[in-house]
Amino acid sequence: MRKGELSAIIDLNEDDAALAPLTTGRPIGTLPFAGRYRLIDFPLSAISAADIHSVAIFMPRSARSVQDHLRSGATWNLDLIQGGVFMFPYVATRDYNDASLRARYYEDYMQFLRMSGSRYTVILGAKNIANIDLNAVLDYHRAGDSPITAIYKTLPVTELGAQELTLSLSELGTASSVLPLSARHLGDAAKVAAFMDGYLIDTPMLIELLDAASNGASFRRMPELLRDAVLANNANAFEYTGFLARVTGIQQYFAANLAMLDDASYQALLYSSIPILTKSKNEIPTFFARDSHVVNTILGTGAYIEGSITHSVISRNVLVHRDAEVVDSVIMQGTKLSIGASVRNAILDKGVVIGPNVTVAGTPEHPVVVPKNATVYQSIEEVPA
Amino acid sequence: MTTEMLGMILAGGQGTRLGKLTRTTAKPSVPFGGRYRIIDFTLSNLSNSGVNTVGVITQYQPLELNRHVQNGASWGLNERSAGVTILQPYAASDGEKFFEGTAHAIFQNMAYIDSYNPKYLLVLSGDHIYKMDYRRMLAFHESKKAALTVAVMPVSKSEASRFGIMNTDDTDRIIEFEEKPAAPKSNNASMGIYIFNWATLRKYLADSNATDGNLEDFGHDVIPAYLAHNEPTYAYAFHGYWKDVGTIQSLWEANMEFLSPNNPLNITNRNWRIYSQAEALPPMMLTSTAKVTRAMIVDGSYVAGTVDHSILSQSVKIGPGSVVTDSMVMPNAVIGKNVRIDHAIIGEDAIVGDNGEVVGTADDIAVVGYGEAIGRKEKA
């Protein structure tokens, strides 16, 4: 294996209950985004841009969509003869009360880390949509005193839910703990250091942590071990200042997509020095018919538009027939809107069919979600509370 | 190693009739239809026809073409011990191997062909827009026990004098070949697609090289020689969309035809996809001032102006107040504010400054070359 400075771990086992039904058959990591991407493209693109050669992906329960998207990893320059993508399957039957089986959980990580030969390891999740320069994080880490660095962004307190994790920053700029917002004594602070589920840690130390945990009396998962490590060592706190969208629920997911219609956000996230790479599909160009009317919208390829679309995000292969209308909505791949259909404030998952003259309308706070492959022949209207 | 049918794409021509568009690149790598390059059609046809071993013969300005084709993976042409090989002229102990013509280019790459020892050699051009199943043509070739099969396409009588015309008997056997005849006897135009029995062709080319070396070009030399020696030579009639995009006018027309949802090329058919090498670009954005009708647009494009009956390729920017009609804009072109573009082809990386005008007519298409910048104009 080619020895790189950095290796990376992406854990796709993220709590996705708040995103049902979008996450019924997929993890947060493969949620479609901006008509073009899957959320996992963001950590993988950051990894690719930092020239990281060894990446471990810890697969979620529903791994099919992840496998299908990643394939050999070639999209992110990870189809290497040395290193590459290492996928670790989800083991549903593993009994973590059994010490010998528990040890295997840690052994997966340790095997990968030892083989990678890396000096540092980056650990990322997929639910924070951002464009992180990992080389800058590495420089910051090397300049800091602590063997672990946590990544955060300063956000208004009002943007965070009670259970979301934050960093307690000391006056020296280090993080002394990772705590849910509800456990913090905020006083009258208007802003808070929102933790972005991202660490950079000395690989030998991470191996030690895992080794110790594997001999421990109780089962502790990786995120808990890392939070303990912050508590024990006072992490270097790296402040990220770029575009960030946190996909913690349906409303946030909806808003994150529509945020891409704002030119500044679109440019900041998608046109920075780190190109966002995604699996390329050989779709034909998107066709706009004679009577189409499309404004303030981003679209993938392969779509065929006869109707009107305003302020929406349209994925590839979407069909919008004549007299159909889409406003303030997120439409995923392969969805069809029949003649005269009307969709407002809605998220239509992949392969949805909206019947002729059917209305689907939510509110900005409560977008209607139509699950994957559903056919809708009766209007759905969310009445504003 | 034996391959039943080996594909050879002749992609070395200069394409002088494309003027500014091929000054720094080979014709097969000229962008087409928004997200393709011309050679994608031939490469995809090969892949879809199960011809998995392909040589691409290059000579003129091959850089962009090499970058595009790479290892053929984008077309699924990267199987082990098969795949795409780029063949460039090289110096050898018996002299430099620059190509003097289509047949000569095949002769110069005999070592490559022999290494696969194919039964049949499929010779193709890299500059045609069409979808064709070469397996059907091979079945025809085998059923006729032919030494050479030439794919032909019916063209109108008025056009026939621009093509090589194959006159056949009732069994489709070619009895006469006329190159660009003033008074054509039939309308079977050669499409520049040939299936040869390699052993026979090899002998002809080797003999020619050992004697007078006069077999340089397939149309001009080899087909007449086959006919003169009474080799079984047949015409395979192709019925479908086929367009030679060798001139500015035909390139523009093919793009405009491509734009029609009723185009017989049937680009939406997912069972015969046209593949291309594509970089991952952000989704296209149409701003609040965009007005887009009868248009094709692809990833990375940013439209704030009006686009009607036109094709925009990857990462094209159209500023507010600009109007693009009946035109084809190639990748990475930047169109400023209040620009008027009509009946035009805008080359890759070209820039048209604010208030600029690029206006042609249906018979005289305006062209902005690769990387060319048309200056900003002050409003009169």
From TrEMBL, chain A:
A GO MF label? glucose-1-phosphate adenylyltransferase activity
Query: The Nucleotidyl transferase domain covers which part of the protein?
Result: 19-157
Record flagged with keyword Cell wall biogenesis/degradation? no
Q: Which domain of life is it from?
A: Bacteria
For this chain's UniProt record, which GO biological process terms are given? glycogen biosynthetic process
Cross-referenced PANTHER family: GLUCOSE-1-PHOSPHATE ADENYLYLTRANSFERASE-RELATED, GLYCOGEN BIOSYNTHESIS PROTEIN GLGD
Q: Which family does it belong to?
A: Belongs to the bacterial/plant glucose-1-phosphate adenylyltransferase family.
Could you tell me what this protein is called?
ADP-glucose pyrophosphorylase
Q: Which organism is it from?
A: Lacticaseibacillus nasuensis JCM 17158
Automatic annotation (TrEMBL), chain B:
Q: Which family does it belong to?
A: Belongs to the bacterial/plant glucose-1-phosphate adenylyltransferase family.
Q: Which organism is it from?
A: Lacticaseibacillus nasuensis JCM 17158
Q: Which InterPro entries match?
A: ADP-Glc_PPase, ADP_Glu_pyroP_CS, GlgC_bac, GlmU/GlgC-like_hexapep, NTP_transferase_dom, Nucleotide-diphossugar_trans, Trimer_LpxA-like_sf
Tell me where in this chain the Nucleotidyl transferase domain is found.
Answer: 7-258
The UniProt site entry described as Could play a key role in the communication between the regulatory and the substrate sites is assigned to 59, 98
Q: Answer whether the UniProt record assigns the keyword ATP-binding to this protein.
A: yes
Locate the Glucose-1-phosphate adenylyltransferase/Bifunctional protein GlmU-like C-terminal hexapeptide domain: which residues? 289-360
Question: Which domain of life does the UniProt lineage start with?
Answer: Bacteria
Could you tell me what this protein is called?
A: Glucose-1-phosphate adenylyltransferase
* Pathway note: Glycan biosynthesis; glycogen biosynthesis
Species classification: Bacteria, Bacillati, Bacillota, Bacilli, Lactobacillales
Q: Which residues bind alpha-D-glucose 1-phosphate?
A: 164, 179-180, 190
